[in-house]
């Protein structure tokens, strides 16, 4: 017998529990899908279409809904001879500027048409934009440009100004670019430049967190396909839904919890998945979610986290928000990145608090000092540094903070 064997006692087909699985129908998002359909209808009517922005936390169905709607739109548009429609999709996860997004779009368009990719360096931004307009012109018709996790570009929002105006400015002729922006950041639009806000003229669709009943509705058909009959105890799916609803309202989290519970049951040679397996899976995933939560922060979020890690390395925590902001600005300067307002930094800190990454203390020193907040990490410094080290842009800073922490620790030992 080998170490690895194919086992079938729990999973019948694990694909419905995979992150990449695309369901045949979208549950519990009827209102959002109707709004989405109205926003896309002008494409079928062959008339100008507004840009569309989707907002919501991770796991609330924005991306899967977009894939679902565009797939239907593509099939339905093929029924009309006078509609020339195509899509191009770019994930902006590691793209922190309009320049990088434009290059990614050019390369995606060229790859779809069998052309050669362009280098990520060596061009001026205007030249990259000109190449992008040439590729869009060659494609023609209505082109839906999906920019997933668009909030990563921060203040570098030229792409959101240039694309909607490309036709009126004469940069493209027989093409109508339509932007579909997907963002985890509800405040993303507030931080766009005034000229971009005026130009976008977008329709907004908000995707709120799911509640326990909605998550249960999403999980049940996947569970029916994923597991053999009789494997699931009746309380497993409701418990997975309840845990995820209490935490983030994320369908992705609920699905991963159910899959992890199944894997724990299978590794224990159990023919059934029980509530105990779900609770053990929840403990395991909570540890992983902290890392994932840090990894999914925007560049600005990472800069704020980096500033807090610096104070943590000196053991100068909890730290006041004004001091933390000063360090954050220095970090942005070192990264050659735009810094945001102190109020916006507090928004990022609030998000980190909800993710369980930091602890916030409210202080009140009376009339003299008034109320203010102090912050410190709620997770080991080493865990933060591991994530920053894995992010190329922050690698050097993470090494500096690590060195600072080591030196501070050594000097502390020498004093005692």
TrEMBL record:
<dbReference type="InterPro" id="IPR049945">
    <property type="entry name" value="AAA_22"/>
</dbReference>
<feature type="domain" description="AAA+ ATPase">
    <location>
        <begin position="48"/>
        <end position="206"/>
    </location>
</feature>
<feature type="binding site">
    <location>
        <begin position="60"/>
        <end position="64"/>
    </location>
    <ligand>
        <name>ATP</name>
    </ligand>
</feature>
<protein>
    <recommendedName>
        <fullName>ORC1-type DNA replication protein</fullName>
    </recommendedName>
</protein>
<dbReference type="Pfam" id="PF22703">
    <property type="entry name" value="Cdc6_lid"/>
</dbReference>
<dbReference type="Pfam" id="PF09079">
    <property type="entry name" value="WHD_Cdc6"/>
</dbReference>
<dbReference type="InterPro" id="IPR015163">
    <property type="entry name" value="Cdc6_C"/>
</dbReference>
<dbReference type="InterPro" id="IPR027417">
    <property type="entry name" value="P-loop_NTPase"/>
</dbReference>
<dbReference type="Pfam" id="PF13401">
    <property type="entry name" value="AAA_22"/>
</dbReference>
<dbReference type="GO" id="GO:0006260">
    <property type="term" value="P:DNA replication"/>
</dbReference>
<comment type="function">
    <text>Involved in regulation of DNA replication.</text>
</comment>
<dbReference type="InterPro" id="IPR036388">
    <property type="entry name" value="WH-like_DNA-bd_sf"/>
</dbReference>
<dbReference type="GO" id="GO:0005524">
    <property type="term" value="F:ATP binding"/>
</dbReference>
<keyword id="KW-0067">ATP-binding</keyword>
<dbReference type="InterPro" id="IPR050311">
    <property type="entry name" value="ORC1/CDC6"/>
</dbReference>
<comment type="similarity">
    <text>Belongs to the CDC6/cdc18 family.</text>
</comment>
<keyword id="KW-0235">DNA replication</keyword>
<feature type="binding site">
    <location>
        <position position="222"/>
    </location>
    <ligand>
        <name>ATP</name>
    </ligand>
</feature>
<feature type="domain" description="Cdc6 C-terminal">
    <location>
        <begin position="305"/>
        <end position="388"/>
    </location>
</feature>
<dbReference type="InterPro" id="IPR003593">
    <property type="entry name" value="AAA+_ATPase"/>
</dbReference>
<dbReference type="InterPro" id="IPR014277">
    <property type="entry name" value="Orc1/Cdc6_arc"/>
</dbReference>
<dbReference type="InterPro" id="IPR055237">
    <property type="entry name" value="Cdc6_lid"/>
</dbReference>
<feature type="binding site">
    <location>
        <position position="210"/>
    </location>
    <ligand>
        <name>ATP</name>
    </ligand>
</feature>
<dbReference type="InterPro" id="IPR036390">
    <property type="entry name" value="WH_DNA-bd_sf"/>
</dbReference>
<keyword id="KW-0547">Nucleotide-binding</keyword>
<dbReference type="GO" id="GO:0016887">
    <property type="term" value="F:ATP hydrolysis activity"/>
</dbReference>
């Amino acid at each position: 017998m080998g170490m690895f064997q194919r086992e079938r006692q729990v999973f019948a087909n694990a694909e419905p529990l995979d992150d990449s699985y695309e369901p045949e129908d979208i549950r519990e998002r009827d209102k959002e899908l109707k709004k989405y359909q109205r926003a896309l209808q002008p494409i079928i009517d062959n008339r100008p279409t507004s840009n569309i922005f989707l907002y919501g936390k991770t796991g609330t169905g924005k991306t899967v809904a977009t894939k679902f709607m565009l797939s239907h739109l593509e099939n339905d548009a093929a029924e009309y001879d006078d509609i020339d429609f195509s899509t191009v999709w770019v994930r902006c996860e590691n793209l922190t500027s309009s320049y990088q997004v434009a290059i990614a779009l050019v390369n995606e368009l060229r790859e779809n048409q069998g052309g050669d990719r362009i280098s990520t360096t060596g061009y001026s931004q205007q030249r990259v934009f000109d190449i992008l307009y040439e590729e869009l012109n060659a494609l023609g018709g209505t082109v839906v440009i999906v920019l997933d996790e668009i909030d990563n570009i921060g203040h570098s929002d030229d792409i959101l100004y240039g694309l909607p105006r490309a036709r009126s400015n004469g940069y493209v002729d027989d093409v109508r670019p339509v932007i579909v922006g997907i963002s985890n950041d509800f405040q993303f639009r507030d931080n766009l430049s005034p000229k971009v806000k005026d130009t976008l003229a977008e329709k907004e669709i908000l995707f709120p967190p799911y509640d326990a009943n909605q998550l249960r509705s999403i999980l049940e058909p996947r569970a029916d396909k994923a597991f053999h009959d009789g494997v699931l105890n009746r309380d497993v799916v409701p418990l997975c839904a309840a845990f995820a609803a209490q935490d983030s309202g994320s369908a992705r989290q609920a699905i991963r919890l159910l899959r992890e519970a199944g894997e724990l049951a299978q590794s224990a040679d159990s023919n059934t998945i029980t509530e105990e397996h779900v609770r053990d899976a929840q403990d395991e995933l909570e540890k992983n979610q902290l890392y994932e939560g840090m990894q999914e922060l925007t560049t600005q979020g990472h800069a704020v986290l980096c500033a807090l890690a610096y104070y943590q390395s000196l053991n100068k925590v909890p730290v006041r928000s004004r001091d933390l902001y000063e360090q954050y600005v220095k970090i942005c300067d070192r990264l050659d990145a735009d810094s945001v307002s102190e109020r916006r930094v507090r928004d990022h800190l609030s998000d980190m608090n909800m993710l369980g990454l930091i602890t916030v203390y409210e202080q009140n020193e009376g009339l003299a000092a008034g109320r203010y907040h102090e912050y410190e990490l709620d997770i080991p410094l080493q865990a933060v540094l591991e994530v920053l080290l894995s992010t190329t842009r922050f690698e050097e800073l993470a090494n500096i903070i690590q060195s600072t922490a080591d030196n501070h620790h050594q000097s502390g030992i020498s004093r005692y």
